[in-house]
């Protein structure tokens, strides 16, 4: 597989339409269609389900998209770093973080670092702790700003000392909207939407204590997650 063809594949997967992808890539539609067909023949699988106006990925196509994103990202990062020359510190620092209070501290450190090393650029991705850890292990990120609970035993790490607090989001006309703080008893009969991460889920259920079972909290919980 050539990197060029993987970029073609990712463009089509993103656009969902060969004509639009061809315009984005500035190549002809027949050329793009031929490249995709050759890629499918090379791999021995069908990557797309083709409709009259749009195309969607097959299961094999979704797997290739995930792998291709990793391959292309690493190739771009490697090329950028190799092209940097001279004695000045240069390159890209890739980091992941959630939308947490610690980002204020991180942005201040980034600004101070750039003043000393203007040829270094930062790439920041907002996502979950699970995805950050996965991409660090894959070499796609250099470090992450993680929120407890998270297992950092296999990493070099330091704690920022910054703490946050949990909040319950409810409509403005909800009976709980006027409260400044909440207890497990306040929420024991309320349908809940929890983060999908198991450690966070367990932490919140532990906070509910006796009400986790008495109020049927576990049966009333739905899950929300963030995907790459």
TrEMBL record:
GO terms for molecular function: DNA binding; DNA-binding transcription factor activity. It comes from the Bacteria. InterPro entries: HTH-type_LysR_regulators (IPR050950), LysR_HTH_N (IPR000847), LysR_subst-bd (IPR005119), WH-like_DNA-bd_sf (IPR036388), WH_DNA-bd_sf (IPR036390). It holds the Pfam family LysR_substrate. Gene3D superfamilies: 3.40.190.290, Winged helix-like DNA-binding domain superfamily/Winged helix DNA-binding domain. GO terms for cellular component: cytosol. Keywords: DNA-binding, Transcription, Transcription regulation. SUPFAM superfamilies: Periplasmic binding protein-like II, Winged helix' DNA-binding domain. Belongs to the LysR transcriptional regulatory family. This is Transcriptional regulator, LysR family. It comes from Bifidobacterium breve DSM 20213 = JCM 1192.
